[in-house]
User: Fold this.
Amino acid sequence: MKTYSEALFLAAAGVPADFPPPGPPEVAFAGRSNVGKSSAINALLGRRRLAFTSKTPGRTQTINFFDLGDGTRLVDLPGYGYAKVPKPLRAQWERLVGEYLSAARPIAGVVVVMDARHPLTPLDRQLLQWLGDVPALLLLTKADKLSRAEQAATLKKVRAAFETQAHLFSSVTRQGVEECRGLLEQWLQQAAAE
Assistant:
């Protein structure tokens, strides 16, 4: 995947009626709150603050659409599973994400972002099962906080649990950035060709 230095914010949707019309292939990013999803998006796009990062979990409350400048889009879904968010707001987020994933949108694939120190929570597993045949990449962020032995053990565990691609990733050390860019580029090219 090339560096999308010209990527632009397109829209923030708090309700399905605010979604941009479907058209270009989209890669969606999903993950629990505070797993480093926005940092991963910024690293993959070669940008510093396109997706806003925060130490406060639950910061992303809308679905954010980004135009990658080549007829494709990246979609940042709100984080799930943060207990301190009021239940009605959590339910609203879940409905919004559900509407996005079940709508007739050209989703080329979903990147499921997990903290490498705490992968495969029940909510992560639920999302992966719900995705079914949609191509998925398990992105294990904050890998720099694990030793090499811990990284290898975590990757082995995750790959054994789900028959899908999984990669260690660090927005700090840039570990996994290039290989993930390559996979996302394949998804988008394939979706555009279809």
